[in-house]
Amino acid sequence: MSGNCTHFDIFIDCYCRQLYVFGQFFNPIYAAGLGAVYIVARFVYRAAYMKDPSGRGAGFSIGFLATVAMVLGGLVGAVMKLL
Prior knowledge:
Oligomer: single chain
Distance between the termini: 44 Å
Helix content: over 70%
Order of helices and strands: HHH
Strand content: under 5%
Shape: elongated
């Protein structure tokens, strides 16, 4: 197994977990929306990287914000369920 496949497996595993936690503890509709935004951001990142590697910032920023929203929303939702 090459290094890229290993990193991809870890990436998908983490992405699926945070998407599940956000959907379970916060809101499944918002989870689906943020998941779609993240996937679109990855396509934007890929297209920009193939065109010019220095122009990939927009795709990265959008994906990063979607990830942060899912992690924080899942954390807040889980804490709210405990209280």
